[in-house]
Design a protein that fits this description.
Elements (H helix, E strand, L loop, with lengths): L2 E7 L3 H13 L10 E6 L5 H12 L5 E4 L6 H15 L2 E5 L3 E3 L3 H9 L5 E7 L22 H11 L6 E4 L6 E4 L1 H7 L12 H10 L4 E12 L3 H4 L5 H15 L3 H10 L1 H8 L11 E6 L9 H14 L6 E6 L2 H7 L8 E3 L8 E4 L6 H10 L2 E5 L4 H4 L1 H4 L4 H11 L2 E4 L2 H10 L7 E4 L7 H4 L11 E4 L9 H11 L5 E4 L10 E4 L6 H9 L1 E6 L8 H9 L3 E4 L2 H7 L2 E5 L1 E4 L5 H11 L3 E4 L5 H14 L6 H22 L19 E5 H5 L3 H13 L5 H12 L4 H9 L2 H4 L4 E5 L1 H17 L1
Parallel strand pairs: 1-2, 1-4, 2-3, 6-9, 10-11, 10-13, 11-12, 13-14, 14-15, 15-16, 17-18, 17-20, 18-19, 20-21, 21-23, 25-26
Antiparallel strand pairs: 4-8, 5-9, 6-8, 7-9, 22-24
Helix pairs in contact: 3-6, 9-32, 11-26, 12-25, 17-26, 26-28, 28-29, 28-30, 30-32
Length: 752
């Protein structure tokens, strides 16, 4: 294949020089295609441009120079070069004079053209080229992307994550490669488009009617200053653009629907999100810890979270920024606002490379927010209690949600072999996520610091748990209170009015850390009657204090104890009737002691999780996995919409977060992807928080039948008093979709 490079030129000799220099410097990489460089001077009265082009031709940099007798405009100028290519059976590359070529731009575009016989058009990625723009703003360098070098750096940092090329409804004429067959059969730009705008779309649409496709070469980049030559003309180029768009719409009514369908596609949305992987000017990537479900309470999950955050806060500055997303009051409650290296955020604006959720998602809102924040999602699947306990499973849809996460998350982390094993058993065929499993710290010293300075007493036995049945704290406290009347029993839970007089109840989760530490330190025995734990942090707290432990014989506890060379003062029991005797032995024993074998501290554990999370950035399948996740996510949201409900909220397996107000997520792209009644039901449920009543359903069916767009309908609903009065904390994802569609609609209306 022989290639003609057609360079239409209008004034601005410095820009032309930079463009031509960058082209010539890289022609060697396509030498086998015998490139012929055709320069067309459409500014014959510009002496500087004329002299420069004459010198270039004399130096052999230009093969053919055409000097128009007068200014003919972009379209007529390009057609002169296309006529030569058509006559000689060559492919053609149209290159605007306000572009810069980089190493690999030319060779990669030609390789993509030859990758599929039906590819007729190829354009590279650019900083300023409509649907070919990548990475799209906003990204971490977009605020300073005022130079070609910065624009190229932004693309270069992330393009490797994209597929080699992407099919698109059209190509962009700023830097457009056209196959020899398309040139031979469709090879001219229609001069009815005047000085320019939309002429390349017309050519792509004409060739597209017989099956030639346009693609974006994702691994090729050309800088584009943008409309530089038009700005030198004394013309109404905006009016020209609108007139030509009206012409395109009349000739090719499929054009705009194809563009809109492309923008709604999973691949387009995934590639747009790859912009989150552009590093900051300091070369750092942003990681989000999604703590929106964390409340004003203490439990094992929050202890895990805070140890990880404190570990990161102690690290020297590196290649990552850690952003904590939570309510400000939650940050104050847990002391996050007093840390130095982490950054506190209260919004869910995207822009992160990785988002981490330290727990299982219990509703679709949590998944939607995670996927909105970052292209790489990681969940801590701490246990499957909510799935295994029948009373909890009956009130949630975690089977569907966790199956989706197992298949589509980038990473899952587990806090014990037991937690991973049980999860895998329930989702055998679902795994697409990478897995990180590491037992939480089993070095008692990792837990001892919080008890420094406290007096160790033997005032009571402490039964740990909460109100959930699998924790068994209430039933165990009653058994102990009745079996050993002389024993002072303190229980974390809620057992009712019929507890023995020697049992005192405390409400789990809301006791301040300082007071809880005192309760632990003043206990003679720590009792852990839970039937089911993913790890069991309280075992380690008891061992850190040297307190005797009485625990139900469950896999998670055995896994902890197996990390020690020797264990004293830990008493396991199998059935409730054995509990009193085990407690008597523990009281008599007086203390616990272990000999460490291969334990780790919080620094070891946190570093291993951090390395796992950041290591996912090196995987070559990030974009492919994201495309699959978006496709599956659209189906999941249709499933939820078809059921007429959102997944139930409320984590189980530990103390429940104290939600101060209901939380809801409005996922506009997912709603817009639906049609008919499913679309109407989805926006009622997500936006208004209720099912559509029959009158409302009929009303909106009629609006759709009468031509009202889905975007206008959503805009009206979100402006309604009912939505504004909704008593919920609402996160709206993809609001910019409504703004973009409104602008397009106004543009089309102005053409009529």
């Amino acid at each position: 294949m022989t290639l003609d490079i057609i360079l239409p030129i209008y004034r601005n000799v410095d820009m032309v020089r930079a463009c031509l220099d960058s082209l010539v410097q890289n022609l060697g990489e396509i030498r086998d295609h015998n490139p012929r460089l055709i320069a067309i001077n459409d500014s014959p009265d510009d002496e500087a441009v004329d002299a420069y082009l004459r010198q270039c031709q004399a130096d052999g940099l230009i093969d053919v120079q055409i000097r128009n007798p007068e200014n003919l405009g972009f379209v007529r100028s390009v057609n002169q070069g296309l006529a030569m290519a058509r006559r000689d059976g060559h492919a053609a590359l149209l290159v605007n004079s306000d572009t810069l070529t980089y190493p690999g731009t030319l060779s990669e575009m030609l390789a993509v053209l030859e990758a599929d016989p039906q590819i007729g058009f190829v354009c590279p990625r650019s900083n300023n080229a409509a649907l070919a723009t990548f990475p799209p703003a906003p990204h971490n360098l977009s605020g300073i992307a005022t130079t070609p070098e910065i624009c190229h750096i932004a693309w270069e940092s992330v393009h490797r994550h994209l597929p080699r090329y992407s099919f698109a409804p059209t190509a962009v004429g700023f830097y457009l490669l056209i196959s020899a067959q398309v040139v031979a059969n469709f090879g001219y730009l229609d001069e009815d488009f005047g000085v320019g705008y939309e002429e390349e779309n017309d050519l792509v649409m004409r060739a597209g009617k017989v099956g030639f496709r346009a693609v974006l070469a994702n691994h090729a980049f050309a800088y584009h200053a943008g409309s530089a030559s038009f700005k030198l003309h004394d013309i109404d180029y905006k009016g020209q653009q609108q007139a030509n768009l009206r012409m395109i719409d009349a000739r090719h009514p499929e054009f705009l629907p194809l563009v809109w369908a492309h923008e709604a596609s999973a691949e387009y949305r995934a590639i747009a999100q790859m912009a989150n992987l552009v590093p900051t000017v300091d070369g750092r990537l942003k990681i989000a810890l999604n703590l929106l479900s964390v409340g004003h309470h203490h439990n094992g999950t929050n202890e895990l979270i805070m140890n990880f955050i404190r570990w990161f806060d102690r690290q020297p500055p590196g290649g990552f920024e850690l952003h904590i997303i939570c309510k400000r009051s939650v940050a104050e409650f847990h002391g996050i606002d007093r840390l130095d290296q982490v950054r506190l955020r209260t919004d869910v604006t995207p822009g992160y490379a990785v988002s981490i959720f330290f727990g299982q998602p219990f509703d679709l809102d949590q998944i939607s927010v995670m996927e909105h924040l970052a292209p790489i999602n990681i969940y801590g699947m701490l246990d499957v209690i909510a799935l295994d306990c029948g009373n909890l499973r009956a009130d949630n849809d975690v089977q569907t949600l966790w199956s989706y996460v197992a298949r589509n998350a980038n990473g899952l982390f587990f806090i014990s072999d037991f937690s991973e094993e049980t999860f895998r058993h329930r989702f055998r065929r679902r795994f697409g996520a990478q897995v990180h499993t590491r037992l939480l710290p089993t070095r008692p010293s990792a837990y001892a610091a919080r008890y420094e300075g406290l007096e160790l007493r033997r005032d009571h036995v402490l039964v740990l748990g909460n109100h959930f049945a699998h924790k068994a704290s209430n039933a165990s406290a009653r058994i102990l209170g009745e079996a050993i009347p002389s024993l002072s029993v303190l229980v974390m839970g809620k057992g009712g009015d019929d507890m023995p007089s020697n049992v005192r109840e405390l409400h789990a989760g809301v006791i301040p850390d300082v007071e809880m530490n005192e309760i632990f330190a003043s206990s003679s025995v720590i009792i852990l009657p839970s039937y089911y734990e993913g790890f069991g942090l309280s075992v380690m707290h008891a061992l850190a204090l040297g307190k005797p432990v009485v625990a139900r014989d469950i896999p998670a506890t055995r896994e902890i104890l197996a990390t020690f060379s020797a264990v004293e003062g830990v008493f396991l029991y199998f059935k409730d009737s054995d509990l009193p005797d085990a407690v008597r032995q523990a009281v008599q024993c007086g203390q616990s002691r272990v000999v460490e074998k291969d334990g780790q501290d919080w620094g070891d554990w946190s570093r291993s999780l951090f390395d796992f999370a950041t290591g996912l950035l090196d995987r070559p399948d990030i974009c492919d996995q994201l495309i699959s996740r978006i496709e599956d996510g659209d189906m999941l949201r249709r499933h939820v919409a078809s059921k007429g409900e959102t997944a139930h909220s409320g984590a189980v397996g530990g103390p429940v977060a104290l939600n101060l107000a209901p939380v809801a997520t409005v996922d506009l792209p997912a709603i817009l992807a639906l049609d008919g009644d499913a679309f109407i039901e989805a926006f009622y449920i997500q936006i208004l928080g209720r099912r559509a009543d029959p009158a409302g359903l009929d009303h909106h069916r009629a609006l759709i039948a009468n031509g009202m767009s889905k975007e206008d309908m959503l805009r009206a609903i979100m402006d309604s008093p009912e939505f504004k009065d909704r008593r919920a904390t609402i996160t709206v994802l993809g609001a910019d979709r409504l703004d973009k569609k409104a602008k397009k609609r106004r543009k089309l209306l102005s053409l009529g």
